[in-house]
Design brief:
single chain; alpha/beta; six-stranded mixed beta sheet; MutS, DNA mismatch repair protein, Chain A, domain 3; Nucleotidyltransferase, domain 5; seven-stranded mixed beta sheet
Length: 860
């Protein structure tokens, strides 16, 4: 930004532009007294984004300006980072004296990915990604808790991870290839800021060296990363960027947590959306399962939903704990009561380490650590012991907090009363002196009234003139000689005396010393607490885990969920399963349960037919959601259930386009289907809804048929498949392949129309009932009758006779189909179009030579 033409540069504006030049990509919040001011283009943009007044500093020179109060700046910062903007906060470092320019310095950078608010709401999420040879290395940082995770994945795994994390800002190497940008963009929130950083920051070897030095470890193997692991690059980039924005204050980022595709069930980005795992509001899996009492418990529950387990022992440990809590309502109630008194340990430690914390954060840590003995007592000799076994010993830290911090400290240190009385003799002495002021002033007023004979003499204090003696005008003739006039009012005069001035200096010094001493003691306590930051964070994670188990037990008890059998087998069997979200939205209306039975070495694929509105999509989603719930350790809504482990869930449900990327609805559908077919694993569970509906009937049917054949032919993977379709011709596949079974949605026909029973039954649907659904939707009768007539004419055509699927090697020998006519087809078309009766002998001979040459070209 440059000064606008015709603007006279004052020393203050020169100072502003100096800092603006240092942070050109940020809105500069320039502290001036009680406000942060912005000027010129920053002011215009802030006015638009924050809906604040745009004014002018000088009516003649017209310097555009806008400002926000410094004491309530957080809501404005939150708005700006949500809009994808960065903010540099430039504070006053000296007090204004009216003679020299106030010294200012940028002390904080706020970016969408690094924002740490006063509470946990609206916190930033920062990511970094790099690509090499088709593999993507990803790092994720939660700035409030300081949790840094990194790992390397294929494209599908990396994009799923980004979608689950939902970064507000992502770092990429500069320059970022367009292919990489196009790949990651659909997986990011719309307002996510993509920031390009020097490519050298992502270089694995130098990144590894920097991280090892930062954490004082010989190798990243200590954190689960191999030497030279490419994930070190994004991890280093994201950590260094965070330190840069916080001016080195990032002590709560204490280690690296490895991300691996082999330790959890992988759910790609589209499946997360299709299954509505974390959508806001109650109509999501998180909305149904969330009974957590702490913010850290809610974050952990989201992580459990997005990363279901593959470790059977870990799954069963969670199930044991949930079952015990479900069956012991007294213990569950005591646990809930204790959790409600716990605060967000991870965020409190983060804010304190970033110098953004307050005495309330220390009080929250104290109050939460006070609950640890209760939690240990509740879990003793129960399955909860497994989760409490590693909780750190922090009784010394707790006693320090109890002995130093006031019971209910104020939010701001400046308000005083942060340190407990009796914690420090020096502070108590200064407080005693400062606290004697009121009594001393009352005695001094009584003394002066008696000495002067002025019964309505008053002794008071204000911020401008300090302590004073106020005498009414009618009594001024009684004022003693040692009174010094300080202020004249309409009805009175104010005076001071040498004795009063001396006492005022003592009181002011005592108040100042109280503030200094309290600030010193608070800072020392903060440092002692932060020296145990890693143990406090670990305690927070344990409490969060207990909160999740308690939440899942509450829901299991309320909704009559059952414990599923999860094993290493090959079968998914659900008896009387219910969609967890739909069930809650029905209220008192009955839910029609349905069953699922798929076996990798038996009937492993089901084709589901039936009309719209009958419940096909609900059935598909129910099966997928119950797999996720079972592997996160939760109980499930069913009469009984058994799940062999699933390592990937793929879904293609619903229709949408990506016009911003030039992708039509059908292209998006095909891209999603291709992603599924190209990334199958030996334990995949595939849910496909209406494949092929985005194009013409025969094209769509052909694609759907071929997709089913492909999934059946993958004997190396043997995926479990639920395939819903309106193409009734596909049901013929069940007669060709023994591993495919037909299912359909039951419909009851009545005199008044049809009634959807929402029940899955064996066998194919005998008709689609599309015209009946159109009638239910209110389509005019004339249109419905015409549609019925047209349908009857179509139904008179012979059935489709599809060829058998050829072995892979035969299809490769014949080559793949092209979007354009083959040379052979063109040659045959030309011959077929000939009329020999109209050719002369000479023309026929010439044509014969041309056809010979064409044949040679085709064969060559």
């Amino acid at each position: 930004m440059k000064p606008e033409q015709g603007i006279a540069m004052t020393p203050m504006l020169e100072q502003y532009f100096t800092w603006k030049k240092a942070y050109p990509d940020c809105l500069l919040f320039f502290r001036m007294g009680d406000f942060y001011e912005m000027f010129f283009e920053d002011a215009r943009e802030a006015s638009r984004l924050l809906d604040i007044a745009l004014t002018a500093r000088d009516s003649e020179k017209k310097v555009p300006m806008a400002g926000v109060p410094h004491h309530s700046v957080e809501p404005y910062l939150e708005k700006l980072v949500k809009a994808g903007r960065k903010v540099a906060i430039c504070e006053q470092m000296t007090e204004p004296d009216g003679r020299t320019l106030v010294e200012r310095r940028v002390v904080r950078l706020v970016t969408p990915g690094t924002y740490v608010p006063e509470d946990a709401k609206g916190e930033g999420r920062l990511a970094a990604i790099s690509e090499k040879d088709g593999r993507f290395s990803v790092a994720l940082l939660s700035p409030g808790s300081g949790r840094l995770e990194a790992g390397t994945f294929d494209a599908v795994g990396a994009m799923g991870l980004l979608a689950a994390f939902g970064p507000m800002e992502i770092l990429v190497p500069q320059p970022c290839p367009e292919a990489v940008r196009a790949r990651i963009t659909p997986c990011l929130p719309e307002t996510c800021l993509i920031s390009e950083k020097d490519r050298s920051l992502f270089e694995p070897r130098s990144a590894e060296a920097w991280l090892c030095k930062r954490w004082n470890v010989p190798s990243l193997r200590a954190f689960g990363l191999d030497d030279g692991d490419p994930a070190a690059g994004p991890a280093c980039a994201v950590f260094r960027y965070f330190e840069e924005t916080q001016f080195g204050l990032s002590r709560h980022v204490m280690r690296l947590y490895p991300l691996s595709c082999g330790d959890s069930l992988r759910i790609d980005a589209q499946s997360q959306k299709n299954l509505e795992l974390l959508e806001s509001g109650p109509a999501s899996l998180f909305g149904v399962l969330n009974r957590c009492r702490t913010p850290m418990g809610k974050r952990t529950l989201k992580d459990w939903i997005l990363r279901p387990l593959l470790d059977l022992d870990a799954i069963r440990a969670r199930q044991d704990a949930i079952e015990w809590l479900k069956d012991n309502p007294g213990s569950r109630a005591r646990l809930t009561d204790s959790l409600q008194r716990c605060r967000d340990l991870e965020r409190s430690v983060g804010r304190l380490s970033l110098n953004l914390g307050s005495p309330v954060d220390l009080a929250g840590i104290r109050d939460t650590l006070s609950e640890v003995p209760t939690l240990l007592a509740i879990g003793r000799d129960s399955p909860l012991d497994h989760f409490l076994a590693g909780i750190p010993e922090l009784s010394g830290c707790l006693e320090d907090l109890r002995g130093t911090l006031a019971d209910a400290p104020p939010r701001s240190l400046k308000d005083g009363g942060v340190i407990r009385s009796g914690a420090d003799p020096t502070l108590d002495e200064w407080r005693s002196l400062a606290g004697q002021a009121e009594g001393w002033l009352a005695g001094y007023m009584a003394q002066e009234r008696a000495r002067t004979g002025i019964s309505n003499l008053k002794v008071g204090n204000n911020r401008v003139f300090g302590y004073y003696i106020e005498i009414p005008r009618s009594q001024l003739d009684k004022v003693p000689d040692n009174y010094i006039r300080r202020q004249t009012l309409v009805a009175a005069e104010r005076f001071v005396t040498p004795e009063l001035k001396d006492y005022e200096e003592k009181i002011l010094k005592a108040s100042e010393e109280v503030q200094k001493r309290e600030a010193f003691l608070y800072e020392a306590l903060r440092e002692r607490v932060l020296s145990r930051a890693s143990e406090i964070q670990e305690t927070g994670r344990t409490i969060a885990c207990l909160d999740c188990l308690s939440s899942l037990a509450d829901v299991a008890w309320e909704r009559r969920y059952v414990r599923p059998a999860v094993n290493g087998g090959e079968r998914i069997r659900i008896s009387g399963g219910r969609h967890p979200v739909v069930e809650t939205t029905l209220g008192n209306d009955p839910y029609t349960p349905n069953s699922v039975d798929l076996d990798r070495f038996g009937k492993r694929m089901a084709i589901l037919t039936g009309p719209n509105m009958a419940g096909k999509s609900t059935y598909l989603r129910m099966a997928a959601l119950l797999v996720i719930m079972a592997q996160m350790g939760s109980f499930v809504p069913a009469d009984s259930a058994e799940f062999g482990l699933v390592d990937r869930i793929f879904t293609r449900i619903g229709a949408h386009d990506e016009l911003a990327l030039g992708r039509s609805t059908f292209l998006v559908e095909m891209l999603e289907t291709a992603q599924i077919l190209n990334n199958l694993t030996p334990r995949s569970f595939v849910v496909l809804d209406e494949v092929g509906r985005g194009t013409s009937t025969y094209d769509g049917m052909s694609i759907a048929w071929a997709v089913l054949e492909y999934l059946h032919a993958r004997s190396d993977c043997r995926p479990l498949v639920l395939f819903a379709t309106h193409f009734h011709e596909l049901t013929a596949l069940a007669g060709r392949f023994p591993e495919i079974v037909n299912l359909s949605m039951a419909v009851e026909e009545t005199v008044s129309g049809i009634r959807f029973l929402h029940r899955v039954r064996p066998g194919p649907a005998d008709r689609s009932y599309g015209i009946e659904v159109a009638r239910l939707a209110g389509i005019p009768d004339s249109v419905v009758l015409r549609a019925q007539t047209i349908l009857e004419s179509f139904e008179k055509k012979p059935e489709l006779d599809l060829p058998e699927r050829e072995p892979e090697r035969d299809r490769k020998a014949k080559g793949q189909l092209s979007l354009f006519p083959s040379p052979q087809d063109a040659l045959l078309d030309e011959i077929a179009a000939l009329d020999p009766d109209r050719l002369s002998p000479l023309e026929a001979l010439g044509l014969l030579y041309r056809l010979r040459d064409r044949c040679r070209e085709v064969r060559s």
